[in-house]
Design goal:
The chain has two helices and no strands. The protein has 55 residues and is mainly alpha-helical. The two termini are 32 Å apart.
Length: 55
């Protein structure tokens, strides 16, 4: 759900934005962080690492 909010925010920022203060830096940081976390989770799945480590 948060990914869709970021996509809508970036589309607004890059396509429709009226002359208001820019959210460009904050949105790109958020999107890059989410993409990084998604990539790490995908790598964990490929390596078959459990989300909860056994004790």
């Amino acid at each position: 759900m948060a990914g869709y909010v970021c996509v809508v925010g970036l589309a607004y920022e890059l396509l429709v934005r009226p002359p208001l203060p820019s959210l460009d830096e904050v949105l790109f940081e958020l999107v890059c962080g989410m993409l990084g976390l998604g990539t790490l989770r995908t790598a964990d799945r490929w390596k078959r690492v459990s989300a909860i480590a056994p004790k």
